[in-house]
Amino acid sequence: MTGAILVTGACASPGGVAGISTQPPASAEAAAAQGSITATLPAPTPTPAAQAPVKIPKGDAPVLVPPPKVSEFTYAFPVKGCRVSYQSKLLVLPKTTIWTARGCAFVSPISGVVHEVNTKNRWAPSTDRGQDREGRFVTVLGDDGVLYLGGHLDAVEPGIGPGVRVGAGQTLGRIGNSGNARDTASNLYFAISWKTQPSLWWVRRGMVEPWDYLSAWLHGNHTLSPAAETRAVMGRTGATPRCAILCKPRSMPKPTERPDGPGTPDGREMVVGDPSPLTGQ
């Protein structure tokens, strides 16, 4: 009896055998009534619109800051109002050649006193004397104690002579190609040294390399001074050093005389390397 009741109860259970329901599935409406189910769908990605080019605003003009003042003196580039070029390396002597147009102004690099002036072009290729190689030139003993030379001038400015007081940037002459530059384009021979007697002409031709100072004066640093370097070089060489470079004038060969002889029909002197007057060789 008990067993029969258990079997009957099992068959009558809505869960069915082994927990499997024998009832039809609930409808969608019933499921919705038991609890609503919602889902969040992502929004569609918007298509990026074409952006206008970004305009970068113009900044203010740069603030010009003057270079630091490194000496009490003010300098001027020795050529005024003309385009120039020069080499920054040693060319036989510690000087530089400033290439520029004929007639451009050679101006005093610093305030000072005119030391030497040569208004005549005495140089000749036959002798090539060292003291004449710069042709027309002016030297200025600056207030900084340094001597500045400008040579190969076409002319010296009227009123410029030894002892005349000049200011930085004052015209001293006009650039040309006098002296041993006669076969070159116009240029300014520029050299830095110290005060000497005219007999020590090789000193004024250049003892201190000038291009670093020229570049500073040309590009806005007008207080870079060669005074300290000049004193240092003079301390090493002495104030009256011996001439060591391009010192002797050109030696001209002396003509050899000999009486007429059978060697040449007209008695003309023969030089080794000349064509023979007899054979043309």
Beta-strand level of the residues, as a percent range?
15-25%
Structural class: alpha+beta
Task: Give me the count of strands.
Answer: 9
Write down the overall geometry: elongated
Low-confidence stretches: 1-17, 256-281
Give the integer mean of the pLDDT values. 81
Tell me the distance between the termini: 160 Å
Number of helices: 5
Major sheet size, sense and barrel closure: 9 strands, antiparallel
What is the chain-wise order of helices and strands? HHEEEEEEEEEHHH
Estimated radius of gyration: 49 Å
Percent in helix: 10-25%
List keywords for this structure.
281 residues, 9-stranded antiparallel beta sheet, alpha+beta, disordered N terminus, single chain
Helix-strand layout with pairing:
Blueprint lengths: L1 H11 L15 H7 L44 E2 L14 E5 L5 E3 L4 E7 L17 E7 L4 E10 L8 E2 L4 E5 L11 E7 L7 H4 L6 H8 L8 H11 L44
Antiparallel strand pairs: 1-3, 2-9, 3-8, 4-5, 4-7, 5-6, 6-8, 6-9
Question: Any overview of this molecule?
Answer:
Residues 1-17 and 256-281 have low confidence and may be disordered. This protein has 281 residues and is an alpha+beta fold. It is built from five helices and nine strands, in the order ααβββββββββααα. The termini are far apart. The chain is elongated. Strands 1, 2, 3, 4, 5, 6, 7, 8 and 9 form a nine-stranded antiparallel sheet that branches.
